[in-house]
Amino acid sequence: MSEEIEGTKTTEETVVNDQNAAWLSDNSDSPLAVLKEMDDKVTSPEKVEEAKLKARYPNLGHKPGGSDLLRKRLTKGQKYFDSGDYNMAKAKVKNKQLPAATSEKSGGGEITGDHIPTPQDLPQRKPSLVASKLAG
Amino acid sequence: MAGAGGGGNDVQWCFSQVKGAIDDDVAEADIISTVEFNHSGELLATGDKGGRVVIFQQELESKNQPQCRGEYNVYSTFQSHEPEFDYLKSLEIEEKINKIRWLPQKNAAQFLLSTNDKTIKLWKISERDKRPEGYNLKEEDGRYRDPTTVTTLRVPVFHPMDLMVEASPRRVFANAHTYHINSISVNSDCETYLSADDLRINLWNLEITDRSFNIVDIKPANMEELTEVITAAEFHPNQCNTFVYSSSKGTIRLCDMRASALCDQHSKLFEEPEDPSNRSFFSEIISSISDVKFSHSGRYMMTRDYLTVKIWDLNMESRPVETYQVHEYLRSKLCSLYENDCIFDKFECCWNGNDSVVMTGSYNNFFRMFDRGYRQDVTLEASRESSKPRSVLKPRKVCTGGKRKKDEISVDSLDFNKKILHTAWHPQDNIIAVATTNNLYIFQDRL
């Protein structure tokens, strides 16, 4: 449902519960103190989730939106040692996806990427690109 | 709550078509990465992770059935981008099409811009339905005739042929982005366009590929001080000097290119104040804006962050004028969503033709529509089960706790692998295109 301009509900809840917390904190041994703890947890589902995460990963950095996360975003993608490494990896993937084509062209189903290819092993031409299934 | 449908009390959405394979084993290349109608709505383009573009064309309404809107059938398909290898960084450059944007039509041909992480291409899609026959020096099969056998001259004549749709790359705009391109946007002047990556925005002339002007640069001198990245950018629909860009911190900056050549200083900064006591580990991540879209009128803009859609009045920077909860029930699942990376999913959003309804996707192949005027919202599902021709889509409901009513689905049963990130709305009619992982659904209102 839509909300217009007014603050979110969570804000109101937080204010009320903080007031409760102050009143209850004097009686730390009483059952009311237990209720106070429950109150705090009920306040914000986000904070509950945060507590869960911190419990599972105690070493998680304190700057979640900071440099680490952003830098991971900026350098997305698998790093290869060099272009040779990249081409070998691509050849492996292509061979898995088009097993029939490869065995026809490379005369015996030898897979490039596992050994130094000889001219006989290499496919005569690039395999045809598969058309999109949306156009099928 | 959920009325008959978004778009007013009387709109009922019906299944029209679905494109793509039915099998559950989805090849990565078939994952749809962008969907876009052209300016007339006659053409619908999709891009996928395999770098391919498929364009559908709406058939003309038949005279026999004036009540039925034309179906969308394949018009053209081509390989737009191929995988490349960045030798300097030893990183692969994915061929995935991040965005497609159509140019307004100026002549018989259609033009679109498609981009992957590094390179933008201008494609011309043209029709050929005639071919010349009767050359003097060539046979019909193309072999050259012996000139000594030519005794008379004739004028070649055009004869009709089967329609052929050809796509050719007319411009390649390369090597201008160090980081990954997330947005492209054609200016209303139809001469320039912008491309935005994580830290910079460049301005291009559609005719010139060897030069690009940098108009925004938020890269800090010391990368350790990096606090936010650009997540989306768009030109204003009718003010050619104005554009906006959104950030991973939930802010939107509006820039005026008349103010200076480098628009690092914003003209307006749109940011909703946050209650500091509510701040959690997840706050910044879920406030990251994944999409920004101007309304057709140019008066408003819409932003999408992880849990909400917000409508901003360009005249008011202090807070949005409307906020719609897309899937608030996920707030108590943020820990798991962080662990499975779903919290980083980038949902897009779109306006309908008259800016009265907005739409965005969610999980479990659900998508949501919010009617701004009637204050109604509805949740619909794109699934094979509701794919009978012209069957009306039933509103769906997620049960957040307590007793689950019949036909409701509980939050824990939602399939987070079935996400609808990309949706598009026809510029005039109530026709929508909704992309699931590898299928494209077309729905229209019941006439």
Description:
- The complex is a heterodimer of chains A (136) and B (447).
- Chain A is mostly helical.
- Chain A has helices at residues 9-24, 31-43, 45-56, 67-74, 83-97, 99-105; one strand at 2-3.
- Chain B has 447 residues and is an all-beta fold.
- Chain B has one domain (17-38, 83-107, 174-445): 7 Propeller (Methylamine Dehydrogenase, Chain H), CATH 2.130.10.
- Chain B has helices at residues 283-287, 334-339; strands at residues 13-19, 32-37, 43-48, 52-58, 72-79, 84-86, 91-93, 99-102, 110-115, 120-133, 157-173, 183-186, 192-196, 200-205, 208-217, 230-235, 242-247, 252-256, 268-270, 291-294, 300-304, 308-313, 322-325, 349-351, 357-361, 366-371, 376-381, 397-399, 408-410, 422-425, 431-435, 440-445.
- In chain B, strand 13 and strand 14 (200-205) form a beta hairpin.
- Chain B is globular and about 95 Å long.
- Chain B starts with 12 loop residues before the first strand and ends with a strand.
- Mean pLDDT of chain B is 93; it is low at 1-7.
- At the A-B interface, strand 1, helix 1, helix 3, helix 4 and helix 5 of A face strand 5, strand 7, helix 1, strand 23 and helix 2 of B.
- Strand 1 of chain A pairs antiparallel with strand 23 (322-325) of chain B.
Count of DSSP strands of chain A:
1
Radius of gyration computed on alpha carbons of chain B: 24 Å
Largest sheet of chain B, in brief, is: 4 strands, antiparallel
Helix vs. strand class of chain B: mainly beta
CATH topology of chain B: Methylamine Dehydrogenase, Chain H
Between the first and last Cα atoms of chain B, what is the distance in angstroms? Answer: 23 Å
Radius of gyration over C-alpha positions of chain A, nearest whole angstrom:
30 Å
> What is the overall shape of chain B?
globular
Task: Please report the number of helical segments of chain A.
Answer: 6
Number of domains of chain B: 1
| Largest sheet report of chain A | none
Number of strands of chain B: 32
Identify low-pLDDT runs of chain B: 1-7
Question: For the largest interface in this structure, which chains are involved and how many residues does each contribute?
Answer: A-B, 54 and 66 residues
- The H/E string of chain A reads EHHHHHH
The secondary-structure class of chain A comes to mainly alpha
Tally of helical runs of chain B: 2
CATH first level of chain B: Mainly Beta
Give the overall pLDDT of chain B as a whole number: 93
GO cellular component, one term (chain A): cytoplasm
Biased composition (Polar residues) (chain A): 16-28
Region (Disordered) (chain A): 1-28, 95-136
Biased composition (Basic and acidic residues) (chain A): 1-12
